[in-house]
Each structure stands twice: as structure tokens, then as C-alpha cells.
Amino acid sequence: MLGREAFAPQPPQPAPPPAPADPCADIPAPINGEITTACITDDITEIAAGGFGFTLGERVGTYITQVETGQVVGLEVVGDNTADADSFYGLIILEPNLLPKGLYALTMEGVQSGYKVIVYFKRV
């Protein structure tokens, strides 16, 4: 009987734990724009964003809204507030990692045209 235990059917092994779900899989696609990093973790201290389609030289206003509450939040934004010769407007947002966790919408709106660019990011 010695050694026969090695050939006996073995009990099934437990299934490995499922991989954790991607916390940023639900970030909506940008509308007419782009963002360098949409999933904001503790180590992300700045992000760049921008959008196309503004009128040449148009002033562009920006605001950040927490999607779940609709509350406008304040962050330091670096940009010159004017669309360039290619109708592009870009900016840098400083310290998005200090925001409470949640989904945010950065809206860039042409002051004269009303044209909107929206990019989304999520603080996790």
C-alpha cells in the first residue's frame, strides 16, 4: 500500500481569487478632447488636457465638476485661456490627487462660440 496514495484521485484545488476589477474601466470617453492620465492615483500630481475645434484665438473658460454631485470643484489650472492657431486649447491641472475619490468632468468652453470639450478623469 505504500505509495498508492500518490496515485489516488486528488481533491479539487480551490479556484484562484478573481482579478480585482479595474476601478477606472467606467471612465467615459472624452468629447472632442484628450487627457494624459484619466485614472488619478495618489502619485499623479498633474495632468494635461486639451481639445480641438475652438475658434482661432477664442478665449476658453474651464471648470471641473464632480459628476456624482454636480458640484464645481476648485483646482489650480495652468493655461493661457486662448485657443491657438490650430483651434486647440490645452492646459495643465495641478494636484488632482488631492481631490476626493470620484469621477470628474473637465469642461472647456469657448466664450464666444459656446463650443464645448469635455474630458473625464477619476480619482481612485
Give the helices and strands, then pairings.
Elements: E1 33-35, E2 39-40, E3 46-52, E4 60-66, E5 72-73, E6 76-78, E7 88-94, E8 102-110, E9 116-123
Parallel strand pairs: 2-9
Antiparallel strand pairs: 1-3, 3-7, 4-5, 4-8, 6-7, 8-9
Q: What does this entry look like structurally?
A:
The structure is a single chain. The chain has 124 residues and is an all-beta fold. It is built from no helices and nine strands. The protein has strands at residues 33-35, 39-40, 46-52, 60-66, 72-73, 76-78, 88-94, 102-110, 116-123. The chain is elongated, with a radius of gyration of 23 Å.
**Unreliable residue stretches:** none
User: Topology as H/E string?
Assistant: EEEEEEEEE
Rounded to an integer, what's the Rg over CA atoms? 23 Å
Molecular shape: elongated
Main β-sheet, in a few words? 5 strands, mixed
Q: What's the mean pLDDT score?
A: 91
The separation of the N and C termini measures 58 Å
Strand neighbour order, sheet with most strands: 2-9-8-4-5
Estimate what percentage of residues fall within beta strands: 35-45%
Count of alpha/pi helices: 0
Indicate the structural class. Answer: mainly beta
| Fraction in helix | under 10%
Number of strands: 9
Main attributes?
124 residues; mainly beta; 5-stranded mixed β-sheet
Write a brief caption for the model.
The protein is mostly beta strands and 124 residues long.
